[in-house]
Amino acid sequence: MKSVVTSLLPKETPLELMIAHGEILDEVSEVLEELTRSYFEHKDIAENVRFIAAKECDADAMKFKFRKMLDKNIKVPFPKQTFLYALHLQDDIIDMMEDIAKRMAMNYLDFPLEDEVQKDFMQLVREVQSIIKYLEQAIRELKQVFASSFAKRERKKEEKEIIRVENVESCIDTLTLKLGKWAYSKKNEYNALDLIFFNDLTLIFAKIGDKAENLAEMIRSFTR
């Protein structure tokens, strides 16, 4: 038997499109570690850059379809503009990952990274991959919350994923601060432009964490 909330939703819903959009987000995040490792090793990253750009185009097409759907008289159990903003946050994350790939394609660092610094940066990348994975799980769980008419057990599952996002975002902040301090400590040793470039890459990864946490907070608001 369908729940009251489920009966409000058509077969193809904005939420299902958001879940599909999140799957693209996850696909892109899965290549970030390979992209970054190849970049630090001065290997060719063109294939990864093309892959991310193609996925970003797929996400844009889905976003357009999402907006058209919301323009129609479709019932959703939350404000349409709020839901549109949620997708906007998710799309921003894909855009930032594409920005990282394009920036890496434009410039390789002239100086070799210290082993500890490279290890910290790769850990930052993995934390970003984790936060996206937890975020996608939270978006998927949102469908179960609605289908169960906001059952307590489903809302608890949702809250668990959101807390995971928040915990990982805290780790991302710690790593970002550590890497930023290292970059500024080398201002008299290395090319200033390369240090700025390195710091900018670090900050984009940090912003992905911020966006993910903001979206998780919005998902939490949907379940209350």
Automatic annotation (TrEMBL):
<dbReference type="InterPro" id="IPR002727">
    <property type="entry name" value="DUF47"/>
</dbReference>
<protein>
    <recommendedName>
        <fullName>Phosphate transport regulator</fullName>
    </recommendedName>
</protein>
<dbReference type="Pfam" id="PF01865">
    <property type="entry name" value="PhoU_div"/>
</dbReference>
<comment type="similarity">
    <text>Belongs to the UPF0111 family.</text>
</comment>
<dbReference type="InterPro" id="IPR018445">
    <property type="entry name" value="Put_Phosphate_transp_reg"/>
</dbReference>
<dbReference type="InterPro" id="IPR038078">
    <property type="entry name" value="PhoU-like_sf"/>
</dbReference>
